[in-house]
Amino acid sequence: MSVLDEIVGNTRAEIARRRAATPQASLERQCQAAPPARDFEGALRPPRGGVRLIAEVKKASPSKGVLIERFDPLALARTYAENGAAAISVLTEPTRFDGALADLRAVRLAVGVPVVRKDFLIHPAQVIESRAAGSDAVLLIAAALSELELKGMLAVATDLGLGALVETHSEEDLAKALATDAPVVGVNARDLETLEVDVERALAMLPDVPSDRVAVLESGVSTREDVERAIDAGAGAVLVGETLMRSPDPGVTIRSLRGAS
Q1: What pLDDT, on the 0 to 100 scale, is given for residue 1?
Q2: Span 121-132, mean pLDDT?
Q3: Is residue 59 annotated as part of the catalytic site, yes or no?
Q4: pLDDT interval class at 16 (50, 70, 90)
């Protein structure tokens, strides 16, 4: 069983528990009361030759375990935003990433940039839950959804005013993503089976994302040189997680990755 299969299995059980605990009608009322979602796609549109940075808040990962012992999502998010992050991704998956929706709610109140819920979303109820929690956009993993399911999840997100980052890991995933009208398409360098990072494979896939969409390189970005290679391959944005979580000064690291002084 792959890591993806395991997490999706756990997620199905968690969905059932949450739907029993919180009726959908209650979540829909929370969505209606929530402030308008911030423009995720617009925040990622770079100037010509430039790049935007999505900074990630996560305590742990399946491949590296706990990344930071003194975890303060609010302080991290504020530092990210103050140093030029265009958007902030918050891991909410509890089993392998030690995340929580409470982290997303807190971050959304602390910053003025779009906040993305990064989780394993496989049911429309989770998209509604994301909006109710204050998310501005959601991550949708192509490998976890059929093409029809992916289109359905995107339609729900659009109806709620949410942006979406459709994440791909293979040429098959990318074809599935491009069969939708998703304006933001990510290419993740991490293999879902082995958890190994293959940046060269991801860089080779990026040019296949049409120029009218925002292409995002995910994983494997730790230096300004990595960012420049992503730009050369057609990326308009990069998503950076572990590099920031392990940095002694995330603000300096963000400025360095952005090529800012």
Answers
A1: 55
A2: 94
A3: no
A4: low
Respond yes or no: is residue 242 known to be catalytic.
no
58 is catalytic: yes
| C-alpha to C-alpha distance for 81 and 144, rounded to whole angstroms | 30
Beta strands in the chain (DSSP E): 52-57, 60-61, 65-66, 87-91, 115-118, 137-141, 163-168, 184-188, 214-218, 237-240
CA distances from 2 to 77, 168, 195 (A): 31, 16, 10
Catalytic residue among 58, 59, 89, 176: 58
Active site residue 219: yes
20 pLDDT above the threshold of 80: no
Please, what sign has the CA dihedral across residues 193, 198, 203, 204?
Answer: negative
Does the annotation count 218 as an active-site position?
yes
Instruction: Out of 56, 93, 129, 242, pick the active-site residue.
Output: 56
The answer on pLDDT for 9 being more than 90 is no
Check 89, 167, 176, 242 and give the catalytic one.
Answer: 167
> Which residue reads 């949708």 in tokens?
140
Global pTM reads 0.93
Q: Is 26 a catalytic residue?
A: no
State yes or no: is 261 an active-site residue.
no
